[in-house]
UniProtKB/TrEMBL annotation:
Positions where 4-aspartylphosphate occurs in the chain: 53
Molecular-function GO terms, alphabetical: diguanylate cyclase activity
Annotated EC: 2.7.7.65
Organism: Oceanomicrobium pacificus
GO biological processes: cell adhesion involved in single-species biofilm formation; negative regulation of bacterial-type flagellum-dependent cell motility; phosphorelay signal transduction system
Name the record gives this protein: diguanylate cyclase
């Protein structure tokens, strides 16, 4: 996963070193020599992540961060502060200003890229939610604007899996006093995962080693693997001697890490930041669901309908060009679907359509767009994906449809296949969304003509 990163430092050599490290990993890098220049660049073209020096001549990193977090259009951009100091009071001030994390100088490559990957992954999901909310407003379905600052933390739920019972009680007391949220404490991985599934928390605070001796990262993996708990934020507590496990935790999906000895004020600030982000994402999803449910959702399958899909594809295509990424569009059509309706009635056909929609949703990413255009015709849009990966995704969908029979009312089961046509939008393409869909549709026709139950790329269909 690539992204665009702004490096802000008033020392030229520091900027050059960081920019070179990031460029080697294929990130697009822009630099600023001071806080004021950084703010101008961010407002002109918001980045995916900001690496921000703390002490600069014109504006401190704290001041830059405060200004960003006060702007609803920029507040969601992750900020990592970079400093040579290890002063806890500086970390606390930065966290209160809205920073997501700190990196010490000299910068450790492993820690840098683990944090960059984690934060850009999070930013991508928030961007997609914001884009979908914008599409809903453009369609006149919602006029609600909401920011993380509106989050009522007293409604949040936190689960602590501590390194000791005493640590758990101390953390619980600090969070209840500072945030007023509901806090539960569980000593082991099994009891913690059971509690999380029974009452899904907004944030889990997990010790690297749990009070009962079990592995905290095993709990992290279970939380991120569960369909109901994977959306919860996770704050990992580590010992200074086990920093490598912090990197592993970030790769598993941990939202933030904090080292012992714990500073209660710092931990509260990190929790406040994570809870605001989680509640912000939840509210974006809720607003989107409420606004779109009747107007732009297909009532049979629960997928987006043609109206929403064509409008949102325009926004996705614009974002693809701006970020210099690839975008794939698939047209999917169930083979010989008329025969299903003729033999099993419309109730049977509807059951197949609903099950097909479910299989589609289970085999795509959260950032992908899935829609029913009408009848047995469906649209799938995959942003930020290469041609080989998109082709692999199409084959996975084709296979998952073919391999297992579909269930009809009354207990009967039938075999169904799907034909797929796929077209790609490149960063330099000026093609409109309708033309892109038409190319994918032509490729779909070729799949039908060549015998069905297959995938055709648009170039091959031309």
């Amino acid at each position: 996963m690539s992204g665009r990163i702004l490096v802000v430092d008033d020392v030229s050599s520091n900027r050059s070193v960081l920019a070179a490290m990031l460029a080697k990993h294929y990130y697009e890098v822009e630099t600023a020599s001071g806080g004021r220049q950084a703010l101008d660049l961010i407002r002109q073209r918001p980045p995916d992540l900001i690496l921000l020096d703390v002490f600069m001549d014109d504006l401190s990193g704290f001041d830059v961060c405060r200004q960003l977090k006060a702007d609803p259009d920029l507040a969601h951009i992750p900020v990592v502060m970079v400093t040579a100091s290890d002063n806890p009071s500086e970390r606390l001030e930065g966290l209160r200003a809205g920073a997501d994390d700190f990196l010490g100088k000299p910068i450790d490559d492993t820690a840098l890229f683990a944090r960059v990957r984690s934060l850009t992954r999070m930013k991508m999901m928030v961007d997609e939610l914001r884009m979908r909310a914008s599409t809903a407003r453009d369609l006149g379905l919602s006029d609600q604007a909401w920011s993380a600052a509106h989050a009522k933390l007293s409604s949040a739920k936190v689960l602590i899996a501590p390194g000791s019972q005493a640590e758990g009680q101390d953390l619980r007391a600090a969070l209840v006093e500072a945030l007023g949220c509901a806090v539960a404490v569980e000593a082991g991985d099994k009891s913690a995962i059971h509690a999380a599934r029974a009452d899904v928390p907004d944030l889990c605070i997990v010790s690297n080693r749990l009070a009962d001796g079990s592995d905290g990262l095993k709990l992290v993996s279970a939380l991120k693997g569960g369909p109901t708990t994977r959306g919860a934020g996770i704050l990992l507590i580590i010992d200074p001697a086990e920093r490598a496990r912090a990197t592993l935790g970030l790769e598993l999906g941990v939202s933030d890490t904090v080292s012992r000895p714990l500073v209660p004020a710092e931990l509260v600030a990190r929790c406040r930041s994570q809870l605001r982000r989680k509640l912000y994402s939840d509210q974006l999803r809720m607003n989107l669901q409420d606004g779109l449910r009747l107007a732009v959702v297909d009532p049979l399958t629960g997928l987006h309908n043609r109206r929403y899909a064509t409008e949102h594809l325009d926004a996705m295509a614009a974002a693809t060009r701006q970020k210099g990424q690839m975008l794939a569009v698939m047209m999917l059509d169930l083979d010989r679907f008329k025969q299903v309706n003729d033999r099993h009635g419309h109730a049977g056909g509807d059951a197949v359509l609903k099950e097909f929609a479910g299989r589609l949703q289970e085999n795509v990413r959260g950032v992908d767009l899935v829609a029913r255009l009408g009848g047995e015709e469906f649209l799938l849009v995959l942003p930020d994906i290469s041609e080989p990966d998109a082709t692999q995704a199409a084959e996975r969908i084709r296979a998952v449809v073919e391999e297992a029979p579909f269930h009809l009312p009354g207990g009967q089961r039938i075999r169904v296949t799907v034909s797929i046509g796929m077209a790609f939008l490149t960063p330099r393409s000026t093609e409109c969304s309708e033309a892109l869909i038409s190319r994918a549709d032509a490729a779909l026709y070729a799949s039908k003509h060549e015998g069905r139950n297959r995938i055709t790329l648009a170039d091959a269909a031309a």
